Model the fold of this input.
Amino acid sequence: MGVSIGGLFATGVLPGLLVCAICMIIIAVTAKRKGLPKTDCPARFGEIMARVKDASLALIMPLIIIGGIVFGIVTPTEAASIAVAYALFLGAVVFRNVSLNDLYQMLVRTAQLTAVIYLIIGSAGIVGWWMSFNQIPQQIAEAFLAITDNKDLVLLMIIGLLLVVGTIMDINVMLVILAPILIPLTEQIGMDPLHAGIVFVLALNISLMTPPIGACLFVLSSVTGERLENIARELMPFLIGQIALLLTIAYNEELALFIPRMLGY
Done:
């Protein structure tokens, strides 16, 4: 899309906070409705501050990544490298809970994940070249605009496509294949690239929780031992809340771009 990484980070701040707020509200309401147990001894302010102090060194890492990128100090790749080096220093030197064997296992796991991601990107790149050669993105854009040239309706169709495809396609594949198709369409309806980017990300985030491919479902199932269908049923309020937020952000450009514009993007 040719937009600033820092701008994309800034655009995601407010939606990210709103996602957290929605999830917290849903959890609180659900816990109260079902009478879930809660601690009899609420944490005192002193205890909270003590925990914050213990975690202060680790909490610096997000500042290194986001602050460095947003303020143009480092590139995203450099920020990631610095964060990895900082985390390794904390684990091996400060907290002393990372051994050489742990480091070896981390490197092996990283190599496995990287190989999978690059296979996906490589395969998607071939498909993307084929689609570009046959002008499929332009044809899809023309097909959408042939139905209607109303910006709001076209945006609704884009969101619907992302949510539907997200139920059957991995998020990485969606991002690599669908982005080149939908970007020309968002440009034709005059959508700000930063605004389009956050709409894509929010829709893809929802796809992480939608069966049958949603990665979060499998993570929760492996951690809790609960059946996928039971987890998917309990996630329905979260899906509804995040879809409502997605539509709110999609149709309120000023809200979505408030922070990046304040920072000069």
